[in-house]
Amino acid sequence: MSQPRSAAIIGAGPAGFSAAAELRRRGFPGRIQLLDPDGLPYDRPPLSKAYLAGGSATALAEDSWYQANAVEVVSGTAVQLHPDSGTVVLAGGEEIQADAVLLATGGTARTLPVPGAEFLHALRTRADADALRGRLGAGKRLAIIGAGLIGAEVAATAAAAGTAVVLIDPVPVPLVPAMGPEAAAYLHSLHARNGVETLTALPVDVVPDGAGLAVLLEDGSAVAADTVLAAVGMVPDTALAEAAGLEVDDGIVVDSAGRTSHPRAYAAGDAVRLRSGGHLERRAEHWDAAVRSGQAAAAGILGQEPPEAAVPWFWTDRYGIHAEAVGSMTRSGSSVERGLPGPGYMVFRVSEDGTLAGAAGIDAGNSMRAARRLIALGKPVDAAALADPKVDLRRLLRPRP
Ligand SMILES: Cc1cc2nc3c(=O)[nH]c(=O)nc-3n(C[C@H](O)[C@H](O)[C@H](O)COP(=O)(O)OP(=O)(O)OC[C@H]3O[C@@H](n4cnc5c(N)ncnc54)[C@H](O)[C@@H]3O)c2cc1C
């Protein structure tokens, strides 16, 4: 396809917003329309942290940015996409026409497959956070089903507000695949230390109980709460893509430049699944991956080379600590610990070939950045140096004399 003269972006989360910004950064002079039911783009990570605690900041950019960059924000929901003509049909019947269409539709909170699921809160949107934040505070009881990233963050925010919190998960130590067993165990132990009750249990039913709810567990016991949040993951929003005939396989299938199976349609963010080297990767579901894939799709739209793939990175904040992980903590090999669980603690995953596959860290900013670069370099690392907190990891990045 020749250079497009207009782009329509469906979904104004981090992926859609970064695609618009990147199109302009790369000098695209054409029309850009950014479509979302919520209008102006906003960010989701604060929704379980500062925003849930009563803060207000969620915008991805100042309002003036859109005018300055000639990005038209359209409030509306796309209900149909005709990729052959580049037509996007909105819920009210209006149509948007563009030479290139980017699907950045993210996902929705997964619902818990138990009776009574209709009583549960979810947390994916600002409206979800608004509904939840009035239900936190002293004298209130919150049960959270799912102790992964979002469930754990909400537990910390709610406990800090004085809420009595019970966190329920069938897995004794959640987040092991993401953080590795050592860092995951430390993170999980913070709940009890901060007054949050953790239960290893499988919820099977949710029923009204007086003015509140009871979560019935497989072992026959029950947890009473005023509010119950299901934080059990997300489902990619692929309905538009599927109806438009694009290739979808638990995510809209894209290449490294966000190209879908139709030459006029691109996709990015939580809704996509990357085909790389002949196989389909897992969906990323993290902020940095969404931003980078939006930028890559912008390059794809312009027929330019996307930036090189980055080593995966995500963070999570809870109980005043900032935890991060980069690369893969599940690669076969061995673990190397640095320091003791607490601020500065790190765990490295070293592959069988001696290169660094992944790292998880607690309040370990500079060292995590160095670890990410070490993973990208792909050269063998010295396990003793990794284990020694006195060794500045940035030193390992330098070529040996
Ligand atoms: C509560 C919470 C906390 C998080 N915290 C972290 C964190 O600490 N660290 C981290 O790395 N990641 C975190 N994440 C994950 C991160 O926010 C997501 O990976 C990121 O938002 C994905 O960006 P996206 O643009 O692909 O999708 P989204 O942010 O979901 O945006 C998609 C947008 O598309 C719109 N849309 C969908 N369908 C249509 C349609 N038909 N027409 C028009 N618009 C449509 C939606 O309204 C939405 O605004 C968190 C997520 C949540 C929910």
UniProtKB/TrEMBL annotation:
InterPro entries assigned: FAD-oxidoreductase/Apoptosis (IPR050446), FAD/NAD-bd_sf (IPR036188), FAD/NAD-binding_dom (IPR023753), FAD/NAD-linked_Rdtase_dimer_sf (IPR016156), Reductase_C (IPR028202)
Annotated FAD/NAD(P)-binding domain residues: 7-294
UniProt cross-references to Gene3D superfamilies, sorted A to Z: 3.30.390.30, FAD/NAD(P)-binding domain
PANTHER family per the UniProt record, alphabetical: APOPTOSIS-INDUCING FACTOR 1, RIESKE DOMAIN-CONTAINING PROTEIN-RELATED
Protein's recorded name: FAD-dependent oxidoreductase
Cofactor or coenzyme needed: FAD
Protein origin, superkingdom: Bacteria
Domain Reductase C-terminal: 313-397
Keyword set, alphabetical order: FAD, Flavoprotein, Oxidoreductase
